[in-house]
């Protein structure tokens, strides 16, 4: 508005710059609140009126048209700012409820489970994004340490509700079932019964057994990363991929049980696609396989902190999707 004022004084009334005063309240309505829009609108009207008298456009059609234009844009800006502020408040309320529900669902995992040290890292997406459905749990059972890391398709309260169904079914099955196959069967039945439409859940279920082996069942989830105390790290990828939970139907292949030795000093990293699909400004995925040295920290917590910081540096800002990581370290 200052530029319009100086320009109008400099060139005079022949160019007709007064209607441009409406740009002030227009931009204020897009970016500011109702109060700020109103203040700028009043200032724009005052400047328009003053310049109109200075240019001797009052009384006259040109001056009146310019004044009415600024007043109309100010009113529209006030309406837009008010509606936007109301939507922001509603979104903040829904997000707050979802975050509380998610914190209740994702209970703190134990720092130790049997001979394992356990650490978890969860990062929510950027503030403007909806709450996602990442989930994790660690349960100590007579059959061994049973773990799940999963990701619900979709976002918002529906995703949180589905995550609650998955975690509830897993916690119950992990305590009751004698083996990992029984856990997965109950989880499949529950999800096939509760999920509808195109909603599904990718997940990895793991069981760390007393004979120093780990068994894995993968339902369309990113492959866990195994880091031996001495040896080459590798992704534990099944030969035959299985569909996510909720997309199974009669005749669908069940996931194969993948077994690996798990000895003192070894580590197993389970994560969601918010980690493996984190992109930098050029669209390059996060190179997880080349960052494994970060997991050699003296504690699992520090290892995940280092890895999380590296992911954030790769992205160059807040993550665009929820990212969960769970690290199991067999204590030497």
Automatic annotation (TrEMBL):
Residues 116-330 form the PPM-type phosphatase domain. The chain crosses the membrane at residues 6-30, 37-54, 66-83. It comes from the Bacteria. Signal peptide: none annotated. GO terms for molecular function: phosphatase activity. InterPro entries: Bact_Sigma-Reg, PPM-type-like_dom_sf, PPM-type_phosphatase-like_dom. Keywords: Hydrolase, Membrane, Transmembrane, Transmembrane helix. This is PPM-type phosphatase domain-containing protein.
């Amino acid at each position: 508005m200052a530029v319009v004022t100086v320009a109008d004084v400099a060139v005079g009334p022949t160019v007709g710059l007064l209607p441009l005063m409406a740009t002030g309240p227009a931009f204020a309505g897009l970016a500011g609140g109702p109060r700020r829009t109103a203040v700028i609108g009043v200032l724009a009207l005052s400047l328009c009126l003053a310049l109109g008298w200075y240019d001797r456009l009052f009384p006259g059609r040109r001056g009146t048209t310019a004044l009415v234009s600024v007043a109309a844009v100010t009113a529209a800006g006030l309406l837009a700012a008010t509606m936007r502020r109301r939507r922001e408040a509603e979104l903040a309320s829904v997000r707050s409820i979802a975050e509380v529900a998610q914190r209740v669902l994702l209970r703190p995992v134990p720092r130790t489970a049997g001979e394992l040290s356990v650490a978890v890292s969860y990062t929510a997406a950027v503030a403007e994004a909806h709450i996602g459905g990442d989930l994790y749990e660690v349960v100590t059972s007579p059959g061994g340490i049973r773990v799940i890391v999963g990701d619900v398709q979709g976002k918002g309260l529906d995703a949180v509700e589905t995550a609650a169904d998955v975690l509830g079914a897993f916690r119950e099955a992990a305590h009751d079932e004698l083996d990992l196959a029984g856990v997965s069967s109950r989880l499949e039945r529950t999800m096939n019964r509760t999920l509808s439409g195109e909603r599904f859940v990718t997940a990895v279920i793991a069981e760390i057994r007393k004979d120093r082996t780990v068994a894995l069942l993968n339902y369309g989830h990113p492959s866990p990363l195994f880091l031996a105390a001495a040896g080459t790290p590798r992704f534990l990828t099944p030969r035959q991929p299985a569909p996510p939970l909720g997309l199974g139907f009669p005749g669908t292949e069940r996931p194969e049980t993948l077994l690996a030795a798990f000895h003192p000093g070894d580590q197993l990293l389970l994560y969601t696609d918010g980690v493996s699909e984190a992109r930098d400004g050029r669209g390059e995925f996060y190179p997880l396989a080349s960052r494994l040295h970060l997991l050699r920290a003296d504690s699992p917590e520090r290892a995940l902190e280092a890895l999380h910081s590296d992911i954030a540096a790769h992205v160059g800002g807040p993550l665009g999707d929820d990212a969960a990581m769970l690290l199991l370290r067999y204590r030497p």
